[in-house]
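HUMAN:
Sorry, I am quite new to this. Are you able to go through these amino acid letters and fold codes? The numbers rather puzzle me.
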Amino acid sequence: MNAETPETPIDIPTFLKNLTTRPGIYKMLNVQGDIIYIGKAKNLKNRVSNYFRAQSTSPKQQAMVTKITSIEVTVTHTETEALLLEAQQIRRHKPRYNICLRDDRSYPYIHLSSHEFPQIGLHRGAKKKSGQYFGPYPSASAAKDSLKMLQKIFPLRQCDDSVYNNRTRPCLQYQIKRCTGPCVGLIDKISYGHDVDNTILFLEGKGGVLVDQLIVNMENAATELNYELAASFRDQIIKLRLVLEQNFIEGEKGDVDIIACATKANLACIQVFFIRNGQHLGNKAFFPKMTDENDPAAVIQAFIAQYYFDKPVPHEFIVSHELEEASLLAEVLAGQAKHAVTISARVRGERLKWLQMTITNAENTLLSKLANKQDSYARFLSLQEVLGMQELPKRLECFDISHTQGQQTVASCVVFDREGPVKSAYRIFNIEGITAGDDYAAIHQAVYRRFKRIKQNEIVAPDILFIDGGKGQVAAAQKALIELDINSVMIVGVSKGPDRKAGMEKMIVVGQQQPLDINPRASALLLIQHIRDEAHRFAITGHKQRRAKAMQQSVLEEVAGLGPKRRQLLLKQFGGLQGVAGAGIDALCSIDGISRQLAQRIYALFHQDEN
């Protein structure tokens, strides 16, 4: 591949005249040098030229063209390469005028380890552990539901190795018949292996084969007059059939993703039903970022190209709309997955029922999203009116402080926009170098650190800065902004009302002599309470994490000869401080770098009362 980067501002006629006819991608840039659109083309000259022909462009394209000051072109060998590069670049840069998928999380799998008595559990991230992986599941909750269901039918252990290796008696899971107690030898390897094999059959979608095997086992046990064992097989068959009826899709034996799109008012909802080995693993809704209304087929095509860029690709896609470049997309995905891929929009029978169900879910989810969006917008309008602002606020931030008697102080910063919480922008600040319990100094430090980055244009400034507190906290935040010479942000303190009763809060606005009373029925108050409560929750969460980390480190720091690396190794191997405290000397010695003398000192730290 090679790249052509014209000078800025661009001379459009000259640039188009000299543009190559080969395939590749093009990037449209504005006057600030930001990429505002990325596209791909089989013929770059023809495709890019279309943007500058008024009769062939949409209002959205015309608005975008007025902002273009530069175009960068990357030539590829084939259109397939261009499609891959386009998806990669859109995911990286998220241009304003592209349909951008905002979901970048890794998806969970069910992992079955390769131990003598394998552990089954939830796994997310790189597949570095040995064993078998099943999935991916659309969400952690879907994977956890499957694990709970499996635990009731085939009770494999789900505890970590650090817990399993240090048990001396069966845990609660054994008592409630969710585990067979391999940690203390209450089941032999052969019997446990049967449960492992049955679990694998189920996760591979061979439920029918599994039921047939269990029926044979039940009949054999009954013939041998072992009625208790036969009854356990019968119970497994009943539970298994119930699960299969709920999750099995008739006529499906492979991996299929059913994708539907609904669009309205510049908003799109993608609904995906995930089918693996003939079983419905769950469904998930996605809301791609769009600046204008787009055709549902274009949204689906952009979604597939970006979402499956780094994820396992099913053998078949069933989509709600005909895709313009279905064959090219299927070719790219097949090359990535190393197996044939088909994309179908016209289906019949059972598949049509599932597609219609997916479409209905997409439409209903979109309507709910629009209702929430309208409600959120109404709250912003009410906030503008209550605070007497000339313009409708776009972005809000709120700070809160949490500590225990002045120790492990943290400050939280949460961010809301007109669609609700922006959790990717949340931040926790560890407060250092202040007098213990000085909330004013803590607020000053957190606000100063946050807005110093805003001053440097690293992050977007809010229109309103809420502070959970009274006049002192507001004055501390105001001082921080004055030191940074920032005067474009409204500061509002949210002070608790009489008896700390919800709805009786007082708003302390910088520049006003008296606190502002808000009608308890005003929707603005609901928005303020929401962001204040979210800041409070996030601050407590951050404080608990910092306190737990400090407690773990401080106790083990008392052991002479135990450095930070071995402290972390101990905590990791035993699953935390509680696991280390319950370990015996021999178990501690089994950790690399822990001598017997050191193990005795660690053991003595937690068993001083016994001595």
